Amino acid sequence: METFTNRNGLKLAYKFSIKNPEDKRIYIVCQFAFFDMDFLIYSFFSQNLEVNTFRFDFPGNGKSDGEFTFAGHVSQAGDIDDAVKFLVSRGYIVEGIIGHSKSATVSIIYSALYGEVNTIFAIAPNFLNGLLPAFMAQHDAIISSNGEIVRYAFGCTREMAQEILKIDMKYYCQRARGNIYILHGYDDEIIAYSNSLEFVKELRGRCKGHFGLNCDHMLTGVLDDVVTIINKIIRDG
């Protein structure tokens, strides 16, 4: 497995899907928190998008070094920046980032902090802003004898939850750069569709397109539609 090294010295696994070896333009594909770069959605994107793609596993995901975390949004924005720098060092021009779920949110944070990539496709992003993701909040916390929250469902620690609760997406949306496209399923059971409306509101003119999809969080039945939307936007420039 090929790897590049991030700013924290961790080796992150990656894969290229090169459609045109002579074309140095490329798009980065980033995954949902629970899965790795080879999960169906992301391999489907790499196979069916008309552009060269590069997908990698965040720390603690798939075959990458490090520990898995539900938090770490800002540090993972740094991982995207490290991926961009790695690709540039290989002679590529990174034209866009395609993020799904947590990595969609992270991609927008990346745009605000680094802004070196002009196009962001954020699929089912979570606006957060003082709220835990719905899939955590709907489960009971495990409480110690003195009433302190010690662990959330799915292995989310108290520290992770506290970090998530401090994320200010309004701040990042106001500083995001480039062209941002939001895609979100009306029937998303993990990150409610209303989150996308918050992004559209806070991104204002930076949101160049907002697409509602007849699907759940995992894009069931609409992967072809998503690829068609992305390919068309890329072709139209």
Report on this model:
This is Serine aminopeptidase S33 domain-containing protein. The protein is α/β, with parallel strands linked by helices. The protein folds into 2 domains: 3-127 and 168-236, Rossmann fold; 130-166, no CATH class. Helices cover 34% and strands 22% of the residues. The chain has 8 helices and 10 strands. The strands form 2 sheets. It has an 8-stranded mixed beta sheet, with helices on both faces. It is globular, with a radius of gyration of 17 Å. It starts with a strand and ends with a helix. Residues 142-147 have low confidence and may be disordered.
Short description:
With 237 residues, the chain is α/β, with parallel strands linked by helices. 34% of the residues lie in helices and 22% in strands.
Main-sheet strand order equals 1-2-4-3-5-6-9-10
Which stretches are low in confidence, meaning pLDDT under 50 for 5 or more residues running?
142-147
Number of helices: 8
Fourth-level CATH superfamily of the largest domain = Alpha/Beta hydrolase fold, catalytic domain
